[in-house]
Design brief:
single chain, 318 residues, alpha/beta, TIM Barrel, eight-stranded parallel barrel, two-stranded antiparallel ribbon, 11 helices, 10 strands, 35% helix, 16% strand, binds 3-methyl-2-oxobutanoic acid
Length: 318
């Protein structure tokens, strides 16, 4: 939400336009001081490097939807990536249970635990000054009911400093969402393809097609009624996601749910080309970090083996 919008033209703000380039992708960003703008014109206050920086809040998600400003999110699991994404003006960072795959190397997200996610969440929170950070409640930490869901959410809030939690499920998780929200903790919901239910869903399958659309809409409304501030729609046909987006007053965040959603979220390792092997069709790869690291590691090994590293400039004198 730091990019100039249709309603936020350069003449209305005084800032320095910077170009962020990555693999041919160019994005305009107002990354310097901004003039006096109202909350309505620029819901988040200044850009990422503005000294009068403000934190993205859940109410800004609502403002963004109302004003047609697209919301951006990436997953993050560590301090360094979090600080880079924060500097780029990404609006929210999700410490996803996808860490089960990307950090811990499990086959699915099912084994990952709260104890494994807490240190990662702490690191991401330390890395940001603007982005809203959301912690994913892992499988087994909320399904037993509202009490368990609240206890798990409280652990994340107290032990990490995170700003919101996310959990999977529509109607089936509505009571959990209500209880967490009543305790003052913002909840991002997640419907469509929900990776924690991979085996129940019968695999990595697009959700909400045909007759399933009605259930998806019912789930979306249940989430909104329960008090969630936003909902992730994962692997849903664009037309159905568009309908959900129109019917809900809370923002929809797409993970493979098309352009009509109010925001877009990606798993950063897929998005940056860090993931080895197959990536989903909806992912646009904005960099090729995996190849860059591979090349660097090969060159380092060759240098060491050939005695080319360390060179005199890398040595300490007496
Ligand atoms: O864990 C995760 O990264 C997620 C996103 C894919 C929505 O839940």
């Amino acid at each position: 939400m730091v990019t100039p919008r249709d309603h936020l033209t350069p003449s209305r703000i005084t800032g320095q336009r910077t170009e962020l380039r990555s693999n041919g992708f160019t994005r305009s960003s107002w990354a310097s001081t901004v003039g006096v703008v109202t909350d309505i014109e620029r819901p988040y206050g200044g850009g990422a490097s503005d000294p009068a920086l403000k934190r993205v809040r859940t109410r800004h998600f609502q403002l963004a939807k109302e004003q047609g400003i697209k919301i951006t999110g990436l997953t993050s699991y560590d301090f360094l990536s979090a600080s880079i994404f924060d500097e780029a003006g990404i609006d929210f960072l999700l410490v996803g249970d996808s860490a089960g795959n990307t950090v811990f190397g499990y086959d699915t997200t099912i084994p990952v635990t709260i104890d494994e996610l807490i240190p990662l969440t702490r690191a991401v929170v330390r890395g940001v000054s603007r982005a809203l950070v959301v912690a994913d409640l892992p499988f087994g930490s909320y399904e037993n009911g509202p009490d368990e869901a609240l206890a798990s959410s409280i652990r994340f809030m107290k032990e990490t400093g995170v700003h919101a939690v996310k959990l999977e499920g529509g109607l089936r998780s509505a009571e959990q969402i209500k209880r967490i929200v009543r305790a003052g903790i913002p909840v991002m919901a997640h419907i469509g393809y929900t990776p924690q239910s991979e085996h129940g869903l019968g695999g990595h399958i697009i959700q909400g097609r045909g007759d399933e659309a009605e259930q998806l809409l019912a789930d979306a409304h249940a989430i909104e009624d329960a008090g969630a501030f936003a909902v992730v729609l994962e692997m849903v046909p664009s037309a159905i996601a568009g309908q959900v987006t129109k019917e809900l007053s809370i923002p929809t965040i797409s993970v493979g749910a098309g352009p009509e959603c109010d925001g877009q979220l990606m798993v950063w390792s897929d998005w940056a080309g860090f993931t080895r092997g197959r990536i989903p069709k909806f992912v646009k790869q904005y960099a090729n970090i995996g190849q860059i690291l591979l090349d660097a590691a090969v060159t380092f090994r060759e240098d060491v083996e050939a005695g080319a590293y360390p060179a005199p400039e890398h040595e300490y004198g007496e």
